[in-house]
Specification:
With 79 residues, this protein is of the alpha+beta class. The chain has one domain. It is 22% helix and 25% strand. It is built from one helix and five strands. The strands form two sheets. A three-stranded antiparallel sheet has the order 2-1-5, with helices on one face. β3 and β4 (38-40) form a beta hairpin. The chain is globular and about 30 Å long. Bound molecules: zinc ion. Zinc ion binds at residues 12, 14, 17, 19, 32, 34-35, 37.
Amino acid sequence: MRLSSDYYVIRCTKKGCGKFSYCKAKQKTKMCPYCEYRITVEKASKTEVNSVIHARKLVQEFNKKLGEMTEPWWYKSDN
Ligand SMILES: [Zn+2]
C-alpha cells in the first residue's frame, strides 16, 4: 500500500492534444478535459503530487508552457 501521493498530473496521450490534467492516483482512467479522450493513467506520463492544490498549480503551469511553444515536438497532425 502506497501512501506517498494522492494525485497524478498526467498528460493526454492522444495525438495532437498532449494537454495536462490531474486525477486521483487510484483512478484507472481519466477523461481529458480538452479532447475528451479517455487516458489510461498507467500508460500516460505522470507526475506524482500530494495535494489537489499542487496538482492544479502544476497543470496550469504545464499547459501555459505548452501554449508558449509554437511547434511542440509532440504535435504531429495526420491531416
Ligand atoms: Zn486530450
